[in-house]
Every structure is written in C-alpha cells, then in structure tokens.
Amino acid sequence: MSETSFDFVVIGSGPGGYVGAIRGAQLGLKTAIIEKDATFGGTCLNVGCIPSKALLDSSEHYHNTKEAMDSHGVIVKGVELDVSKMIARKSKIVSDLTGGIAYLFKKNKITPFKGVGSISGKNEVTIKGRDGQVTKLQAKHIMIATGSEPNELPFLKYDGKRVISSTEALELPSVPSKMVVIGAGAIGLELGSVWSRLGSEVTIIEYAPKICGPMDGKLSQRLQTILKKQGLNIITNAQVKGADVGKSGCRVSYEDRKSGETHSLDADIVLVAAGRRPFTQGLGLETVGIEKDERGFIKINDHWQTQVPHIFAIGDVVPGPMLAHKAEEEGVAVAEFIVNGYGHVNYNTVPSVIYTWPEFASVGLSEEQCKEQNIAVNIGTFPFTANGRAKALDCTDGQVKVIAEKNSDKVVGVHIVGPRASDLLGEAVVLMEFGGSAEDLARSFHAHPTLTEVIREAALNVDNRARQM
Predict the structure, then answer these.
(1) Catalytic residue among 61, 263, 325, 448
(2) Which partner for 176 in 14, 125, 269, 397 could form a disulfide, CB atoms 3.0-4.6 Å apart?
(3) Which is nearest to 421 in space by CA: 167, 179, 226, 133?
(4) Cα dist. 132→3, 118, 177 in Å?
C-alpha cells in the first residue's frame, strides 16, 4: 500500500473513533484516523466527560472543606477559592489524556491526520488540513465517528459570553452571581452543581415533568429532592420562551406548562444544556448516497453499515444514547466485523450516569419502561441510610433499586442514587451481561462494611428478605 492507502480510515478521534482505530490496528488493519480539532479525544476528553468530572471533584472538595469538614472534627478557617487554578488543573488533566492518545496511535502504528475529513468517493476520504493543504486517502473501509455538538435553541443563540454552551461553562473565569441552566439532563445537573457549589445562585429550568431524562422516575424525584436541599433551584414542566441579553446580564422568560403563566429570572450567565445533536455537516454523505433520519442521525443496519456497506457509522451520529462507552463498544464491534465478520454490542446493558453528588447510575429497564412493555417484575429497594460504610463516610442520601422479572427472577434493571453510584453499578452490569438473577446477587459475598452491601440488600429485598431494616 502507498502512504495514502489504508484498510481502515476513521473520521473522528473521540472515544468511539480512537478505540475503534486501535482495535482495527490490533487486528492487523492498516489504519488512519482524522481529527479536525487541535487535539485528539473528541468532545469527551476535551470539553465533555473528563473536564466536567475534574471540575466536579474540585468543587466537591471546596464545598466539603467549607461546609462539611467540621463534623469530622477537622476545623478549617479562611477557605478561599482560586477559580483560575481550578481551571488550570482541569486543563492539565485534559492535556495529559489527549497526549496519551497520540502515544497510543504511535504505539499501535496508526497514522493520524489533522484536518477536516470528508467522504469524496466510495473509497476515498479528502482531508483539508489545518494549514489548508489537501490530502486524499484511499480506504477499503471507512468509519464515521464525528460525535455531536450542543443543541442551540433558535430563540436563544450562543454568544459565548452571556449565553453559553457546556464548552464555555468549563472555562468561566469567575463564579457568576446568578446562573440559569436550561435543561435538567446530565450536562445541566452536573455543571449546575459545579457552579452552585462554588457559590453561584443556580436555577435549572426543565421542559419535562421530571429531571434526569428517561432515567427511573422515582429515583429521579429522589435526586431532585436532594439537589434542592443542596441549594439548586429546579423548575420542571416549564418552557423557556426567550431571553433579553444585555451587557450586564440576561432576563430569561419561561412559561409554566401547567398553568400557562409566564415568569422571568435574572442571571449573569445562561447555560443552554438542552441536549446534543449529531455532528454530520461537511462529511460528504450525499456524495455517496448515505442517508440521515428526520433527527439528523445517520441511518445504519444492525452491523453499523450505512447504505454503502464498507462505510460504517457509530457513536453520537447514530441513534441511541450519546455516551462515550457506547461509542467505544461500537467502534470495537465495527473493527471486529470488518476482520472477523461479526461484532457485538449489548444495548441492554449500557450504563448511564449523572455525576452529581450523590451520583445517579442506572442500567437496564426502569420501572416505567417495564410497565410500558408489560413486563411483570418484582422490585427490591434499600436506602443508604441503613449502611454502616455510608454512615462512616457521612454520605447516606439515596437508594438502590433492583428490578427482576417476576417469573424468572432475571435482573432487568438496577438504579442507584448514592455515593459513588457510578463505581457501584459495575457489578450490576456484569450480572446482567451474564443473565443473572436477583438471587445470584443476593447470595454473593459483599465485604463488610462497604457501600456495595446496599446493592445486596436491595437484591434480597426483591424477595422481601432484606436483613438490615
């Protein structure tokens, strides 16, 4: 092959793109990857999952030092906040991880290209480099992994200063006195929590009757109650109508969807966190007849193939949850399908996490979804208030819910609001991957005292056998 001829060309170096490229290289494919931004890693590493978690942890440390340490006998006086240092720490973490991806490309003999990639033929990708230079690659197989971008509301355009997206919310130079967040999904709740802990008066406006999107209704309500106690003002069932944006601030107007009454809020910053949309513009899809659905997602079959069988699409540009780990598994599956003729992703065990404090982690069906699908279930719950380790950590808010099919006892969903719920959920994902039952979980050893005992007690409670309450 020539220097511009490859077995596998990946457009986009986010989690789905770079992990899929690595798997392709491991399987012997001569692989190239194209990234339009200055650094590798896509939204997740640069302006999404990683930087937001860095700020969440930093803001937790600040808040706990100010508000919670004295109960442990640790008296701290004169606590100060250095926002610029906090942002610098976040940026250092991002830099380390994006640099690590460049190392992985070199280690796996993947050829990276910087520039905007577009499909210019059924086996050709054209790259317009950051310096304006044009390069054409020949590809036996192409994978589109270009991710997503923030939704912009037509009546509330981003200006990057007063009306911002999640990208700018990770770089604010100071704590705004008042912030309005539009959207109570993962992004809105997480970034709202960050700036609330740091001292901003945060109001979150959500169009739906509940927060947390499609996640379990009762636990969503439980988390909302906890977050309100922490100082977040959350307004649900409300439709934002617009905002008057001035030099010194914004006035946001919204309508109560039940009463029809209109209200307004003043804010220094308006963060629009109303979901994300697939990033597919400029890809040249029309050149080869690749179709999109009415929401802009690329149409694929069960093997992630577009209408052109050797061109694949994964991650946020195709239907399904917009999650980094979902994209990773799809990228791996495509590489394996190309080489071996099969690839596997179990969409029933894709975990979802909202990294508030406490966290909300979920896998499988919710109670509402079971009712919609007429699945008869038994449900076991258990609170963290009864757990010794949670008491020792002084983190007792929340609950575990285990949902099992009534006849088979097979676990079809596990939902956790609680401390480190994201880490606790792992055993539920593995259990469900193997088709395990609530009884399997209930009879498995869990070290004492640990937070995971709450999961075991919830599993026991599926059969009304919880022992700690």
Answers:
(1) 448
(2) 269
(3) 226
(4) 19, 14, 43
Q: Are 362 and 352 in contact (CB under 8 A)?
A: yes
Q: Is 448 a catalytic residue?
A: yes
Spatial CB neighbours of 421, under 8 Å, sequence gap ≥ 6: 353, 358, 359, 360, 361, 398
User: In terms of Cα–Cα distance, which of 115, 65, 57 is closest to 89?
Assistant: 57
- The pLDDT score that the predictor gives to residue 51 is 98
Token pair 């190239």 in the structure block, residue: 32
What type of residue is 231? G
Q: Which residues, 6 or more positions from 167, have their beta carbon under 8 angstroms from its beta carbon?
A: 47, 150
Domains in the chain, please, with CATH? 5-150+277-346 (3.50.50.60), 163-274 (3.50.50.60), 358-461 (3.30.390.30)
Contact in structure between 8 and 28 (CB atoms under 8 Å): no
| pLDDT at residue 2, rounded to an integer | 62
Do residues 210 and 366 touch, judged by C-beta distance below 8 A? no
In order, the DSSP letters of 210-244 are SSSTTS-HHHHHHHHHHHHHTT-EEE-SEEEEEEE
Q: Which residues pair with 381 in a beta bridge?
A: 401
Tell the burial category of 154 from Cβ atoms under 10 Å away from its Cβ (0-12, 13-18, 19+): exposed
Helix or strand holding residue 66 (H, E): helix 49-67
Position 469 scores a pLDDT of 59
CA distances for 247 relative to 178, 244, 250, angstroms:
15, 10, 8
Cβ-based burial of 92 (10 A; exposed 0-12, middle 13-18, buried ≥19): exposed
Q: H or E segment at 364?
A: strand 359-364
10 Å Cβ neighbour count for 193? 27
3-state DSSP call for residue 200? coil
Q: What is the dihedral of CA 102, 104, 107, 112, to 10 degrees?
A: -50
- Asked if 38 and 16 count as a contact pair (C-beta separation under 8 A), the reply is no
Q: Are 285 and 298 in contact (CB under 8 A)?
A: yes
What's the gap between Cα 274 and its chain centre? 13
Average pLDDT for consecutive 10-residue bins of the chain (469 residues)? 88 98 98 97 96 98 95 94 98 97 98 97 95 95 98 93 97 98 98 98 98 97 98 98 92 97 97 96 96 96 98 98 98 98 97 98 98 98 97 96 98 98 98 98 97 98 86
